[in-house]
Amino acid sequence: MDNNVYQVYEDEIRALEEEIKLLTEKYEDIQQESTFYSEEEILKSMKSFQREMQGEFKGHECPSDLKAQLESLETDLSFLMKLTGFQFTSHSKKTLEKTGDRTVQKHRLSGNCYSLSFQLEFQLLVTQSKEKVSTVVTDLSIVMEPGEASNVSKFVSSIEEHGNLVTFFRSLSTYAEWHEHRRCTFLHFK
Fold it and tell me: Which processes are annotated in GO (biological process) (predicted)?
């Protein structure tokens, strides 16, 4: 009879261990995959967070340095969006491989630069040594708006081949700004 009691407990322990293992795997998957967030969702989350912080600190002042830091970051983000014309609408990141000194992540990014839409997909290889950290962009794929793709297809092909994201963002910003000026000018004459 004692063996039956022990067997029941052992079965329950195995079932709980299996459940813990499944939940751990599910948690790790959720941690690796980030979901798409629109700018509206980010703003809603920020406002919700601010309300929670104010609720937590009723009777106490909200730390002024944190509040000032948040306002400063919002101002900087707004300034950069106005300066560059870039507005990112979604981003996702998934870790494909992680070893001691090497990490491979897959990124998907979409947004607008003035009136031009774009989507990027690339892998980022990060290697760490004692002296430095190096990053390399691989498997870059750029999708532009169908109407504009014909005007910049050679440029996009070259960027994809070389995997140079900085050049892409700099050039797209300049091109999109002048494209917007041309569009407004032609609208004026219609």
Answer: CENP-A containing chromatin assembly
Q: Which residue has the tokens 């507005």?
A: 87
Amino acid present at 14? R
Q: How many domains does the chain have?
A: 2
Whether residues 44 and 114 share a domain: the answer is no
Report yes or no on 21 lying in a domain. yes
Domain, as residue range, for 30: 1-50
pLDDT digits (tens, 9 = 90+) for 40-84: 666 777 777 777 666 655 544 556 778 888 888 888 888 888 888
Task: Count other C-beta atoms under 10 Å from residue 140's C-beta.
Answer: 19
In angstroms, the CA 87 to CA 134 distance is 27
Q: Given CA atoms 50, 52, 53, 57 in this order, what sign does their dihedral have?
A: positive
Distances from the Cα of 124 to the Cαs of 110, 136, 139, 152, in angstroms? 16, 6, 9, 24
State whether 113 and 180 are in the same domain. yes
Q: Are 34 and 91 contained in the same domain?
A: no
Strands 133-144 and 116-128: antiparallel
Q: What six digits make up the tokens of 138?
A: 């691989």
> How much is the CA Rg of the chain, to the nearest whole Å?
25
Query: What is the distance between the alpha carbons of residues 66 and 49, in angstroms, rounded to a whole number?
Result: 12
Quick one: DSSP state of residue 129?
-
Is the pTM value of this prediction over 0.85?
A: no
